[in-house]
Structure formats: structure tokens, C-alpha cells
Design a protein that fits this description.
The protein is an alpha/beta fold. It is built from ten helices and nine strands. The protein starts with a helix and ends in a 7-residue tail after the last helix. The structure holds adenosine-5-diphosphoribose. The site of adenosine-5-diphosphoribose (APR) has 25 residues, from α2.
């Protein structure tokens, strides 16, 4: 079955194929970044849903920043894995390749991907909570661990917030526009995401509606498994590694 699945995907990957990949936390799991909803997704006794909200930040910015500081410190020690490297390679090899990631860890860029569509922003960027007039829209703050929690805006002295999209917030319109353009593709792979968080989880259905062949790669079944053309069970690094070897490349590992 696995061999047939790999063949079915490889047949759709040619030099001019338009390939779009949507990734989630499962792609960074082999790098040691905890996923959100697995048993390792808990921080102290909090779930992501309780911390990644504007309301949580408004009521306890220190607590929320402590969680981000913990994640940033952990991520700073992680290196890209074979899945990140293969996606970066495909970005160089296939002209019509686009990568949309829900991950905020920056490991795709570390692996050499550029033009990544960062659906949920970046954990390495921040913005002024009040959007003060003097500050840029967002800027890089990559100190780990942070010297002062919560960090303050160098321009107005107010609070700084992580440059990520929280539950209940909208996706940056420019990012949404780029993601929508990427739905025009021949092959759409959804990799390592639980397919629970919208609007990202709806992208695969939208791509299928526009005629793409849709594939899910995940260690477990998800709500998307029954809606895609092909669901392949396995680790992202392992399945993408098999695909790349069948395509005749040698990246991965
Ligand atoms: N390879 C492939 N899939 C894997 C692997 C792996 N090595 N390890 C875990 N998975 C799968 C799990 O089976 C699960 O379906 O990755 C998925 C991770 O799911 P989540 O933790 O829910 O992460 P994600 O889908 O990226 O979450 C979406 O929710 O909390 C918010 O904004 C946050 O971007 C995040 C969004």
C-alpha cells in the first residue's frame, strides 16, 4: 500500500508541476519541537488554547510570555530535519512549488526555504501591543532566554506581543492572499497537521475544490484523512524521504 501511495504521488511530480505543501507541527516533531495537541503539547498545566489568545495575554502577559520564552529557548536548540531540508530542496527544484506553514519556529528558513507563507507568523518576531506610531509593524527579537519578561516596546515603553496569530485573530490579509494563490496547484500535500485549526485546515478542501490532487501525510488519522484523495500514514521526514529517493534525489536524512 505504501509503495502504491508513493508511486501515486511521484507520478504527479514533474519539473513543471505546481506543488503546494501545507505543514504543521508534526513536521518539526523530529527536530524536537513539541506539537500542540500531543501528550507533549502541555506546558505546566496549560494547553495552547488557553495561552495563545488575546484574552490570556490581556489578563496575564507575564504568564503568556513565560510560555513563549520557554518555547523560543527550546526551539533555539533545534535543528531542521530531513522533512524541512527536502521541502527547501523542492522549492529550489520545482518552479511552481509553494510552502505554507502553520509553524512559527523558523526551521524552514533555517533549512534554506525562502518565500515561505507563514500562515501563523513567527515566534522570532514581535510587535508593539498598542501598535504605537513610532514602531515598525513588527521586528525581530531573537534573544533567548529573554532578559526581561514581559519585554517592552523600545519606542513607547508599552507591552510587546509575540508576532504570531492567536486563537480568535484573523490571518494577515497579505498572507491569506498568497495562500489563496497557492491553492491553484496540481498537487497539494498537507503534512503533519491535526487539521483542527481553521482557516488553515480548510485549505486542503479548497485546493481539492479547484482540482488539485490532495494528499495527507501524518502519523495518525485526522479529520482531513477522509476528505483527501490519498492519506499516507507515517512520519513526515520518513514519507518525504521516500518520495525524494523515488524522485532520484539524495537529500533528507
Ligand atoms: N510526522 C508527521 N506527522 C506527525 C509527526 C511526524 N513525525 N509527529 C506528529 N505528527 C502529527 C500528529 O499526528 C498531529 O496530527 O502532527 C500533528 C500535530 O498536530 P497539532 O499539535 O495540532 O499541530 P498543528 O496541526 O500544527 O496545529 C495547528 O494550532 O495551536 C495552534 O497555531 C497553532 O499552528 C498551530 C495550529
Amino acid at each position: 500500500m505504501r509503495e502504491d501511495s508513493i508511486d501515486a504521488i511521484v507520478r504527479r511530480i514533474g519539473p513543471s508541476a505546481r506543488i503546494t505543501v501545507l505543514t504543521g507541527a508534526g513536521v518539526s516533531a523530529a527536530s524536537g519541537v513539541p506539537t500542540f495537541r500531543g501528550k507533549d503539547g502541555l506546558w505546566k498545566s496549560y494547553t495552547a488554547e488557553r495561552l495563545a489568545t488575546p484574552e490570556a495575554f490581556a489578563s496575564d502577559p507575564r504568564l503568556v510570555w513565560e510560555w513563549y520564552d520557554w518555547r523560543r529557548t527550546l526551539i533555539s536548540r533545534c535543528r531542521p530535519n530531513g522533512a524541512h531540508r527536502i521541502l527547501a530542496l523542492w522549492g529550489r527544484r520545482y518552479e511552481g512549488f509553494r510552502l505554507i506553514t502553520q509553524n512559527v519556529d523558523g526551521l524552514d528558513e533555517k533549512a534554506g526555504s525562502d518565500s515561505v507563507i507563514r500562515f501563523h507568523g513567527s515566534i522570532w518576531e514581535v510587535s508593539c501591543r498598542d501598535g504605537c506610531a513610532k514602531s515598525p509593524k513588527r521586528w525581530v527579537l531573537d534573544e533567548v532566554p529573554l532578559g526581561h519578561i514581559p519585554p517592552s516596546c523600545p519606542w513607547c515603553g508599552g507591552l510587546v506581543r509575540p508576532g504570531v496569530v492567536w486563537f480568535g485573530e484573523g490571518i494577515d490579509p497579505e498572507v491569506l492572499h498568497r495562500a489563496e494563490a497557492a491553492l491553484e496547484c496540481d498537487l497539494f500535500l498537507t503534512v503533519g497537521t491535526s487539521a483542527l485549526v481553521y482557516p488553515a485546515a480548510g485549505l486542503v478542501d479548497a485546493a481539492r475544490g479547484r482540482g488539485a490532487f490532495t494528499v495527507e501525510i501524518n502519523r495518525e488519522a485526522t479529520p482531513a484523512s477522509g476528505r483527501v484523495d490519498l492519506a499516507v500514514q507515517g512520519g513526515a521526514e520518513e514519507v518525504l524521504g521516500l518520495l525524494e529517493r523515488r524522485l532520484g534525489g539524495c537529500a533528507g536524512g
